[in-house]
Design goal:
With about 110 residues, the chain is mostly beta strands. It has one domain. Helices cover about 5% and strands about 55% of the residues. It is built from one helix and eight strands; from the N terminus they run E-E-H-E-E-E-E-E-E. The strands form two sheets. Strands 1-2-4-5 form a four-stranded antiparallel sheet, with no helix packed on it. Strands 3, 6, 7 and 8 form a four-stranded antiparallel sheet that branches. Strand 4 and strand 5 form a beta hairpin. The protein is elongated, with a radius of gyration of 14 Å.
Length: about 110
């Protein structure tokens, strides 16, 4: 399966456009973590317990954006969003990549089909 073009070094939140078939989608990813967790620093496993990754998917239509999904990413549990199907395999994000760019070892792997 192809992967979403997530560039974890660009930090979170992040968003990008993705064409699939005849449709164009806007995909957003952001991290939900409490202040204490962020203050502790280090790498966050966003598919485990505690802090998590949220995915937002909208389809671009001539009349505007059509919301398709806004949900917590869960390891190996498919997320249906219109004709897209997203499967989150890995989401490790260093706290330095929260609202900041840089190479800190963050890695987000999401397979996409549709």
């Amino acid at each position: 399966m192809p992967l979403l073009p997530v560039d974890a070094d660009e930090g979170f939140p992040q968003s990008f456009r993705l064409r699939s078939g005849t449709h164009m989608y806007r995909i957003g990813l952001y991290v939900n973590a409490d202040e204490r967790t962020v203050a502790e620093g280090g790498m966050l496993d966003l598919l485990g317990t505690g802090p998590f990754l949220v995915v937002v998917v909208d389809r671009e239509d001539p009349d505007g954006l059509v919301p398709l999904a806004r949900r917590k990413a869960v390891r190996d549990l498919p997320c249906a969003a219109g004709q897209l199907r997203l499967e989150f395999r890995e989401a490790l994000v260093h706290v330095r990549n929260l609202n900041g760019a840089g190479s800190h070892g963050s890695r987000v792997v999401v397979e996409v089909s549709g």
